[in-house]
């Protein structure tokens, strides 16, 4: 031990004298200074401080891993390269003392980089909108991610420097990083057929997430527990690797004690390494299996008619939830109790009405199949049967047109659903966070409703592609929700307003989506906004521009656009539901949206099937409609000038664009009228590919003159 201290002290002095080793430390400080200053000088923040930190953290960690790994190879091989090691073999120095002394000083260098990072993080996060507990959790998360990765890579650096007695040893470090991170660094939420997502566990830091570990109002809670297992196993594996290096280092110099003790210590360490690795593997394997089971339950196969690519592109439009149902859910009263272990218990009273023109004795409901029905009773004699998510109410007497009945419907169970190869928790009930989107089927929906839309996909690992369904209600529902829960510190919000503590009441045609986490709720005009406290000002600015566009669209096209509530979500959850039809409810990202993005969303929200009827003439109409919305938000150059600067190619004929420009020259109102007419003309065509702008304008002129 004394000799080890001597080696450690000597290497430490040499390290302090090497001015070049201060460069990585300085680079880290300068990079984090740039990240913080560039964030803080912005007048309006569209993302949280933690989000900005973790976006840069991943790239900084990769750079630091490369630097520290190469330094480890240098530390292990520098004495051999300088022939000093030939002299050392004549000393009475044990292998353990010699190697571990150098290994520890290299670990200390990695620790210096870690300390710089967590000091910067700790100081910056003091001004972030998070609790003291979350502050400590974020710091510890970064510490275990960095130290676990450094610990393992330094051990590998020593091992390969001992095995490969040449400059090729330095190439091993970038090779390890590329091999371990090549697949997961290409995350898009879908692993391809050759990319088993379970191999993504083989990384020096826990990278089983998409884009960033940070999830807005839910922070890093989703990744924290599993990262403890992953990095715990990584540290233990690092010990095993350095022990292996000791076994291989100058075998002729091993003492009897070293020969006896090193294998015993290695065996002892391998056991908890396997246990922790197995626990981490089982965590993800369970999520992946549940995701695959969900997709297999819903996935539809190609019927071999037509082209496979055409079927892929049109599948979700064909299977969207737009079939009307004769029954309506007039009232839904829910008494919800959140229990331990992701359990939910619900006692509900439903008022259902037959709005059709014929009597029936069967009514259909939809509820997530993971929830178990405990009671299904009514004043009318009724029995319930179930097939997956679909529930059939069988009545002895016919339900007449216009007739209402009440149903007492009680159920309980566990809700933990996954998306994107099991990386994302789609619906969950946890102590510090909750998310129950409507698409999770956590409360009874009227009719047979697809909660998930999936289709086979032979280029993806699970052999299917899966999305949340578009759930569109035919009629509004009066909701009353009473919530009972132990942890009242976590704020809750539903798509209906809270009238008293944990009691929510309102009418919505969209339905219910519940969130619980670190957010605040305020009104922007008549719209309730639910957002993380740090992005609220940015969210209000974006929603203000949306409001201006919504009002314009409502006056122009006489359609309902403005929602009653807006959720500001992180990217992972925004992308899960942004394609859904959200009447009365809207979701935006924690990011700035330009005028063009708003205009595109406005048009797509009214007619999401536009892509099916696209021809060249109609494309110009859509461009003109986007331009006119953008012009409403901020004054633009003329339509033809905007079109030329945006889309015009050298060979394109501008005849149709110039025809539209003549109407803009006559005045803004004239331009709005002709675009509205052309859009409705296209919408009325049976075959939308037959749209011809010249013919439509001729008809418009004829109607105008008459």
From TrEMBL:
Keywords: Membrane, Transmembrane, Transmembrane helix
InterPro entries (UniProt xref): Aminopeptidase_N-like_N_sf
Domain of life: Bacteria
Transmembrane segments: 20-37, 57-76, 108-127, 139-161, 168-185, 228-249, 261-282
Keyword Transmembrane attached: yes
The protein's name: Uncharacterized protein
Source organism of this protein record: Lederbergia citrisecunda
